[in-house]
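tool_call: predict_structure(chain=1)
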Amino acid sequence: MDKESINQCLALSQEVMIRHFRGDSEFAIELMHKNCIWIGSCASEFYQGKKDIAVVLRKIEGTLPPVELYAFEYMCVSHDVHDCTITGRHLGQTRLDAGEIYRDMQRVTFVWKKIKDKFFIMHIHVSNPMNNVQEDENFPHRVGKYTKEYLNMLVSKVVEKNGFITVKDQQSRFHIIPINDILYFEAFNMNCIIHLKNEDVLGRITLLDVEKMISERNEKMFKRVHKSYLVNKYYAQSLKRYELTVSGGIKLPVSQARYNEIREWLHQ
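tool_result:
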């Protein structure tokens, strides 16, 4: 195959895996040669022929949780005039709305054949079993759901430990806010904007007063990075002179006088 055809096989291999975990098995089925062989992640998954593979893929289509794939490392390891072998690996993790938590690396091999300017899959091999797959599972649902339940329990304990703050807004409404949900506080005149994961609250409280309130509950969790910003350590993503990036790609200024202190705080 020429370089353009190899690049197309690389892209198609990646797209097959992405669509598989999005519940679209027809994309892969359409590309399979009638004599395709699929070796799956479980010991029992060895199927020959497009028809048999299609039955299996359609059966499990609705049973997989939503999984996002990333960090693809795919390469062509051999090719000739009509054939191309693609192998590589990627990471996959369940989405936040999946109801279970799982993350693992998969290693895959695709063998492609070009017939009259069309590409057909001759062989697919998912070489590693997803760790902890039970005998009757096609995805580690049990361990994923158990992990989700365990994480929820840990989160509830953290919320209980760090507690809540109560703030009155500009319409004199009271907001009871879990401290864990606060990304950062921002001074606004003599008030304070509380930036949460899903919304903002303009509170009738100064940044100095909210800083005192927060420090009484967890003095290491928040730090004044600038005269106008008080940041939750656990939402900080990166630091450079003199700028701190928090969740959502939001960039906040860091005062020169506080820079070294902030850097040490983030590494604690």
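agent: The chain has a mean pLDDT of 84. Proceeding to next step.
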